[in-house]
Amino acid sequence: RSLAGASARLMSVLRDIAATYRGPAAVLRRRLSAGEREDRALAVLMAGCVLLFVAQWPRLAREAYETGAELDMLMGGSLMALVFILPLLLYGVAALGRIIAGVLGGKGGYHATRMALFWALLAAAPVFLLNGLTEGFLGQGPQTALTGLLALAVFLWFWLAGLVAVERGRA
Fold it and tell me: Is 72 in contact with 79 (CB distance < 8 Å)?
């Protein structure tokens, strides 16, 4: 019974991620309509950070093979940075974004601003995974730079579209 519920929630999140590529603001509005739940915001953030960590695996494996470095050490450093430190930094970035938006006349709240950032990270994760695979298989080069720029552009598009919707009072 609980497995079926978890499966349904996962499918809902996957559908929302796919829908974000068609309309990021609409998906964020729908997710925010469930009310202010910091546990959900934290779950979205942690899921995004874990996927960023997983996206690093191919690159780290390549680096360990090429340099002779210990893969466990490389993965441990990446885990610490992406799963333990990055979430704290992103809470700070979201707060700073809310303060700046408030000075500029934004109407959003801190929770909605956090969700715009956290959801953008999770929804852009498939492109970050593609970038990680590209770097792992091809190494540094124009293809890796292109997929990295694509991942950054998608993340910024999702974040800014959500932030504008939140701060204009549409979310």
Answer: no
